[in-house]
Design goal:
The radius of gyration is 19 Å and the shape is globular. It has helices at residues 3-8, 16-23, 30-47, 88-98, 116-126, 145-153, 175-187, 205-217, 244-258, 304-313; strands at residues 52-58, 60-61, 84-85, 106-109, 136-139, 158-160, 191-199, 222-227, 263-267, 280-286. The protein has 318 residues and is an alpha/beta fold. The chain has an eight-stranded parallel beta sheet with strand order 9-8-7-6-5-4-1-10. The protein has a two-stranded antiparallel sheet with strand order 2-3. The structure holds iron/sulfur cluster (SF4). Iron/sulfur cluster is lined by residues 64, 66-68, 71, 73-74, 111-112, 171, 289.
Length: 318
């Protein structure tokens, strides 16, 4: 039985070779549409056509020592026009502005060197502004068990933390560090938000399979897949970018294998990927590793309203 036949008959007990077979589907072939039809059905059935919009504020634009070869904020090839750090008052004002829109989870992002104490202080000031049902997610560098507990006490409910593709090769973080942080967060009761990223044309399906399986083993409820944006000035920019069609296929396979209980995202938002069971999008403000404009809301970033509009066009509701 082919892997496609298996998933079409609702058998999701997929071996490595099944997953590779799905990843190897030609995205211009009829099989591609069979694949995305399964992913689409899974999401719509699970979510009852509910969509999600998350927002993220990047609180500093400063050189980061982890030096990821794809990131505009990396210290050896810092590509933003300015350097700045937002005050608590600045971010409080921004979040108050954002709260006039409807969105679900709220993410606070800082570069890996941002002092933990300052981050916790900011989180405590922002928490009362969120609705009680809104989840509050930290996107920060690696941390230990004490910091994980401090984050919980500051009102943080989850972390965006992943093992990036070619971690330790294209970045100065090590997979063991990333795993230790995820473990510390889980032990403290923080929810893990996961993503297969940043996927570039040079990554093999075997490498992508390894990361998809890592996410499957973590029992993730909020999942994502992201292609690498070739940011001018970064060492990996000349490797180019995956097509949206290829990204749609990888997102579909990720959704089918990881089977997140709440939502599946593709970053950055694109209408085509919504055909493949994507029901969550991000609106972003402030600094962003994929942008050379240090206020991404003026360039690549989406507003919550624009994200909702895209989801509604695809039949997802608030
Ligand atoms: S992606 Fe994150 S960790 Fe890597 S250089 Fe950029 S800010 Fe630092």
């Amino acid at each position: 039985m082919t892997a496609l036949n298996k998933i079409e008959s609702h058998n999701f007990d997929l071996s490595d070779s099944d997953i590779l077979e799905l990843l190897n589907i030609d995205a211009t072939s009829p099989d591609f549409y069979r694949l995305i039809a399964v992913s689409n059905a899974i999401t719509r059935q699970k979510s009852n056509n509910k969509g999600y919009v998350f927002t993220q504020i990047g609180i500093n634009a400063q050189p980061c020592s982890i030096d990821c070869k794809f990131c505009s904020l990396a210290s050896s090839h810092y590509s933003l026009s300015e350097k700045w750090e937002k005050s608590i008052d600045d971010v409080v004002l921004e979040l108050k502005g954002l709260m006039q829109y409807h969105f679900d989870d709220f993410f606070l992002m800082a570069t890996a060197d941002y002092p933990v104490g300052k981050f916790l202080k900011m989180a405590k000031s922002l928490k009362p502004l969120l609705r009680p049902d809104q989840k509050f997610v930290a996107n920060v560098g690696d941390f230990d068990t004490q910091t994980a507990q401090d984050l919980v006490e500051a009102g943080i409910t989850g972390i965006y933390h992943i093992n990036r593709l070619r971690e330790g090769i294209d970045t100065k973080a090590q997979p063991q560090q990333r795993e230790a942080t995820i473990e510390a967060a889980r032990k403290a009761g923080l929810e893990i938000y996961y993503c297969i990223e940043p996927i570039g044309p040079e990554h093999s399906y075997e490498e992508i399979l390894t990361e998809i399986k890592r996410a499957r083993d973590l029992n993730i409820s909020v999942m994502a897949a992201m292609r690498r944006t070739p940011v001018e000035g970064t060492p990996l920019a000349d490797k180019g970018m995956l097509s949206t069609l290829e990204m749609t296929k990888i997102a579909a396979v990720t959704n089918i294998v990881v089977n997140p209980s709440r939502s599946m995202n593709v970053h950055e938002p694109s209408q085509m990927t919504l055909l493949a069971g994507i029901n969550q999008l991000y609106a972003e403000l402030g600094a962003n590793p994929r942008d050379t404009d240090c206020h991404t809301e003026n360039n690549r970033g989406f507003t919550p309203e624009k994200a909702w509009e895209m989801l509604c066009e695809a039949g997802y509701e608030r």
